[in-house]
Amino acid sequence: MAPWVAIVAGVIGSALGVPLVRIAERMLRIRRRFAWPVRAAGVVATGALVALVVWKFGPGWELPAYLYLALTSVVLSVVDLAEKRLPNALVYPSLLVLPVLLVFAAAATGSWSALLGALAGGAALFVFYFVLALISPSGIGMGDVKLAAVIGLALGYLGWTPVLVGSFGGFLIGSLVSLVALAGRRVTLRGSLPFGPSMLAGAFLGVLLA
Predict the structure, then answer these.
(1) Which GO terms describe its molecular function (predicted)?
(2) How many structural domains does the chain have?
């Protein structure tokens, strides 16, 4: 994939970031407009994720599935950062839309083993996070558990190495964010930060290294 194609895709993705942030605003329990730094961050994040996905998959059949993941990740992250909540209105449809897109990709390329890997990855991360939620409900919420299934589907299609990289990458990013927040006194030792954005950042690290 020529770099300029990814750059153009990133510019287009940035434009999509504007309506995505508006969608996130509508999913808030208490409707409000985000401040301009949040809107700007959403625009930049959308552009970066779209550029990454286009650069990684090019015109391949997998592209729609991972573009979908990129766009939904922005909305989920913005809402989670604002309300510490991953909206079911987006997570539940993703559990249907993403597998359907992966089925199309597998059918077009004959990669049925990759599709089985997606199902296995989704199930594995769901169970893993569900156990973590039972052990530490204050640290891992059920929204994180459902999101883990979505991430597992996307990474499992690419193989078990991306699943492992994405999973542990999410925990590493989450730990670093927590340390920075503690150092800046943005959160106390008893406080908690939304984990969804870190999970999604780790997921795209797994995609990048796949």
Answers:
(1) aspartic-type endopeptidase activity
(2) 1
